[in-house]
């Protein structure tokens, strides 16, 4: 773990210069979707006049746009620097001690533009379960995405964000009856199923529903497999569709999900082929399917083992073969982490520190104190290195539930400027009384003091959404800003 690459005294000036390149190059030169362009132009954005002033001369913007590869690199660095600057400014201006998120709403729009570049014919329906943050919902609603909901509460949240019911898919194959009735009352008509009993239940409670058959597909290469719980195998599809025909259900299409965080591009093409077979089975039974939902599983940041561009290339090839534009089939998807992950950066405070028991016995002579950060850090007489245990104010019962439920791997970095000339084996622990509340073990870190800060990037997916108040520890607050401006939102 290394300290941040820029001393904070230098951050404001550097961030301003980098952000100027970011706005004029990446935003003005690369955005492809009309809605994104109009939103970026300053429509309904706080401080739009100041934003326009910061964009600089049009001639400089044109010059920046002519160097897209350079600007992409500059914009990535600028966004990161702006986030760290905003984080540190919040700590200094408020005296903050509690853990908190910095949420970059510009990152959400960046991901939308990336999606429209590589999968322009697939309409994204954001998976609300990933992170139901209202700012994420409103940003994506403004951009024109749909929404994938799995409960009455999620449907209500999206409707409250001003989204029309026609832009919602109730993509939970096993629904509580009262939630189906709520969907019927609010005009949410498109919903998924994967068995005959669910079909019968939906027909009774929402007779006008447009239902979508969820298929079982190979999700063995995903971070979080879903096939053990959901999906009809192809051999069962004929019987399920015959039942749908018998009770008069309006089956309009097919859906699948390769698992959350899929790292194998061929899983998508295999799933599309299975969907094609299901379409053909439906046609043989008199159905005219018009919707294909390709689910989620798309990576949320640039550190994933598989690049989104590679997945898009594979999907476009497979969709063109089996569901060409001429087929008239409408194609949607359910990305969650793709939009949310990179938008959140979490800052945590070191609330306690100690040497691990074995390390303490080896390092501390009778009657002396454990090493401090200002003392030598290579062990007594260079013979033994200390093992530091750091306790921070967020953990497995809060944002880091993702370690258990989402199989996430996190990478702590020092926000506070520290001496990184030497790193020692360390562990990071959450604040609760549970001995299982451990964020990381046996990692290399520079020595940090009580009161120092760490940060974790890419913490927007399946983190705060599943946090709790266990032991009386409240979830981190959120600080919203746009990394392309110097203003908070």
TrEMBL record:
SUPFAM superfamilies: Alanine racemase C-terminal domain-like (SSF50621), PLP-binding barrel (SSF51419). Residues 100-460 form the Orn/DAP/Arg decarboxylase 2 C-terminal domain. Residues 106-341 form the Orn/DAP/Arg decarboxylase 2 N-terminal domain. Keywords: Lyase, Pyridoxal phosphate. It catalyses: L-ornithine + H(+) = putrescine + CO2. InterPro entries: Ala_racemase/Decarboxylase_C, De-COase2_C, De-COase2_N, De-COase2_pyr-phos_BS, Orn/DAP/Arg_de-COase, Orn_de-COase, PLP-binding_barrel. GO terms for biological process: putrescine biosynthetic process from arginine, via ornithine. Coiled coil: none annotated. Pathway: Amine and polyamine biosynthesis; putrescine biosynthesis via L-ornithine pathway; putrescine from L-ornithine: step 1/1. Its cofactor is pyridoxal 5'-phosphate. GO terms for molecular function: ornithine decarboxylase activity. The active site is at 433 (proton donor). Signal peptide: none annotated. Its EC number is 4.1.1.17. Belongs to the Orn/Lys/Arg decarboxylase class-II family. PANTHER family: ARGININE/DIAMINOPIMELATE/ORNITHINE DECARBOXYLASE (PTHR11482), ORNITHINE DECARBOXYLASE 1-RELATED (PTHR11482:SF6). Homodimer. Only the dimer is catalytically active, as the active sites are constructed of residues from both monomers. This is ornithine decarboxylase. It comes from Saprolegnia diclina (strain VS20).
